Amino acid sequence: MPEITYVTPRKGDVLLLVGTMKGAFLFRSNKSRKKWEMGGPYFPGSAVYAMAYDDRKGRQRLWAGPTSMHWGNVLRSSDDFGKTWSVPQEANIKFPQRTETALKNVWQILPSRHDDDTMYCGVEPAALFKSTDGGETWELVDGLWDHPQRPQWQPGGGGLCLHTILQDPKDKRRMRVAISTAGMYVSEDNGATWRPSNKGVRAEFLPDKYPEFGQCVHKVVQSRKKPQRMYLQNHWGLYRSDDRGESWKDIANGVPSDFGFAMAIHPDDADKVWIVPIESDGFRATPEGKLRVYRTKNGGKRWEPMSKGLPQENAYECVLRDAMAADALDGVYFGTRSGKVFASSNEGRKWMTVIDGLPPVVSVKAARV
Amino acid sequence: MSYTFYIPGPLRELAGNRGEVRVDGRAASVADALSLLWTKYPGVRDRIITEVGEVRPHVNIFVDGESIRDAGGLQTAVEDGSEIFILPAVSGG
Lengths: 369, 93
Prior knowledge:
The complex is a heterodimer of chains A (369) and B (93).
Chain A: E1 14-20, E2 23-29, E3 37-42, E4 47-54, E5 61-68, E6 72-73, E7 76-78, E8 105-111, E9 119-124, E10 127-131, E11 139-140, H1 142-145, E12 161-167, E13 175-180, E14 183-187, E15 195-196, E16 217-222, E17 230-234, E18 238-241, E19 249-250, E20 259-266, E21 269-278, E22 293-296, E23 304-306, E24 324-326, E25 332-335, E26 340-344, E27 352-356, E28 361-368
Antiparallel strand pairs in A: 1-2, 1-28, 2-3, 4-5, 5-6, 5-7, 8-9, 9-10, 10-11, 12-13, 13-14, 14-15, 16-17, 17-18, 18-19, 20-21, 21-22, 22-23, 24-25, 25-26, 26-27
Chain B: E1 2-6, E2 20-24, H1 30-40, H2 45-48, E3 59-63, E4 66-67, E5 83-88
Parallel strand pairs in B: 1-5
Antiparallel strand pairs in B: 1-2, 3-4, 3-5
């Protein structure tokens, strides 16, 4: 097993939680983000598609959902920035017997924004789990699992996964999830009932291009300051909503491709969003061999490439759906399938390489300690 | 009657840091013998068996040298003194 290194963040530091196909890593920097210190690999050999930082109630708790090809998935947490991790005796996310289903992977871990102890997990096969005791115990959200359309959901390239969970910042009872390949479902009663919500979102791969459900939504983000504003990176299609996701309009203005996976929104500016266009579903690499992040400052009226510090020759990279994050310090961070992690402390105007040589990056989260 | 389990490295922290575990009791099948193991070390169970009760696809169990996949699965018979190896398949990492 590899030698594991650790970080010791101080108050105010920026922490990147990086999940890869072969373990998890932490990167620590101070507010200037000029130098990064690495911790890891944690769970070497396991795929870590989901990580989260829980700072509610004074916690400094990391969460990870490592999936071992051999030994399955158990949610793990650390209160000392990865020096030690919990070792639950029993798998904490389990499908109930009635479902006759086994967990394949954890795709998203989300501490609730509305109280200190609720958490959500999005998993594969597509389902939502909820904990009300800070992650000690978890229960399947039956209302979504029992949805009559669920038998018609189809797996995408990454499997049939629930990869995005958006709690409405102002309406506690409203929640939206995105599933590949089922599209988005919204609940207005705290998860008890769900309805499909994909109006205006294209399904290029179906005979009916605008079905009620069945879209391959890759990532959705929502403004925390202006919750009616949302953005969506689709499997072909780049969209904005101004009515909390009830309808979507195309905003692919000036991008080299409207195919892509990753998307991040500025926490304090509903008009600023970052994406990484990918050439096509047939060739999932950055167009023209140039790694370019595209930013809009005006809600998608115009997108501009942000490439200073990124490789612009022979860079056939891919940034997966959860491998990009933005923070309130104007930071944007992302990782590539080829194991590179880049950071910008000025909204993407200039990038630095945090590391080159990790296993394929599947998840990047940013936290302020 | 007793049965000896050989525990792979990654699971030893859940089995008292032991690579070899002897369990005592009555077992007709490997499923019965595994239940005896879970009683002693409950943390091992979910790493080997999914919530639908199947051996994880990349885990192999051998009873006295024979893979249970080629025998009767979890109903493969065990005898007093059987040696049961739990091994990761040639995959992953």
